[in-house]
Amino acid sequence: MAKMTKSQFMASLGEMFGLSKKDAGEKWDAFVAMALKEVRQGGEFNLPGLGKLVKKARAARQGRNPLTGESISIPAKTVVKFRVAKSAKDSVL
């Protein structure tokens, strides 16, 4: 089975809620912006039944260049992860 494209997702979402594809896309973009704003400010955004977006700080560390074997420094950075809810895992598996 092929993956659903963004266009197919918007069409399906629009159909589900009786909206045009364009309106569904605008509402989805607003939802994504809200989720990212919450993660940026509060560190996490919960999607009940699905999971949550979590902001996490990664410490600086030493790595190795696989081509040359040379040791390199990897700087500290902040990343966003998605943690799948147990109920979602159980329903898929």
Description:
The chain contains three helices and five strands. It has helices spanning 6-17, 21-42, 86-92; strands at residues 44-47, 51-58, 61-64, 71-74, 77-84. The strands form two sheets. It has a three-stranded antiparallel sheet. A two-stranded antiparallel ribbon has the order 3-4. Strand 1 and strand 2 form a beta hairpin. The mean pLDDT is 93.
Summarize it.
With 93 residues, this protein is α+β, with helices and mostly antiparallel strands.
Essential attributes:
93 residues, alpha+beta, HU Protein, Chain A, 3-stranded antiparallel sheet, 3 helices, 44% helix
Question: What order do the strands of the largest sheet run in, or round the barrel if closed?
Answer: 1-2-5
Spatial shape? elongated
Distance between the termini: 17 Å
- Per CATH, the superfamily of the largest domain is IHF-like DNA-binding proteins
Number of domains: 2
Low-confidence stretches: none
